[in-house]
User: What shape does this take?
Amino acid sequence: MMEQGIIPDGRWMIIVNPNAGVQKGTKEWPKIHRIIEKEGVDHDFLLTEHKDHAIHLTRKSIEKGYRKIVVVGGDGTLNEVLNGIFLQQTCPVQDIIMGMIPIGTGNDWCRMFNVPFEYEGAVKLLKQQNTFVQDVGKVSYQKKDQTYDRYFMNVTGMGYDALVAKKTNLFKEKGYGGPLTYLWFVFASLFQYKFLDAVIEVDGNPEFKGEIFSMNVGICKYNGGGMMQVPNAIPDDGLLDMTLIVKAPKWLVIRHTSKLYNGTLINLDIVKTFRGKTIRIRSTRKIYLEADGESLGHTPFTYEILPKALRVVTGELANW
Assistant: This one.
């Protein structure tokens, strides 16, 4: 619930998604809330009720005076809160601190920043408030003949990755799924998928033209529940990292599954990598997009980087 009146500087607004982790949030939130109160974290909280509700709740919370926002949910909820932060016009984004208590199925952003999956550890990070200022990406895309923008702070996927994300999301909406759901659909969707053509420019320079299997553009390394499809991504270097898998026999996906998890996928001949501040992608047939696991629209895409744009609460950081 949200208290009325002046908001103390140190108070967190907690945005809770009850449906995160295939409705894990409904069961786990009372337990998490007890830990938050036990640790003496000054807070109010709000529960989301539908898709994109967290965007609205975040904007309204900032308008009311909150400058510290916590996500209790998964990567999709994190993305919605991020977009709420960047769409609000009440204060500079630099005034906001964002934290997370993960209860999703993937929790890939947390892997990058060593935010514990264990609730007590995640809550203690909020108290310690060690922060890091990371880059944020912005991608424009088409949907129903209109152009939309979406901010992201982890990884986006196109082509096969977007198809797998869409199937995973639909499965979760029906109340099924778990940590291995994404991997299951990596295999289950292979024979349905058709290769697509793409033209790619990085920082205005033509880099690729041909048929593609899958593409990822990332700020951080992990997606799909621990896969490293953009293993060279550094979250504060002011650059977008892109991994492109070109048209290849589909059985190679099965053969090289382990390379999706250890980051060595990029060493294969069928994989190309790029790095830049802007990326533009167009195609003859529609290529679809997901951002931080959220299914969106289709080509053409324009990516840009917002360097060191968001302050986040982290665990102990690795040397990237």
In short: The chain has a mean pLDDT of 91. The two ends are 39 Å apart (CA to CA).
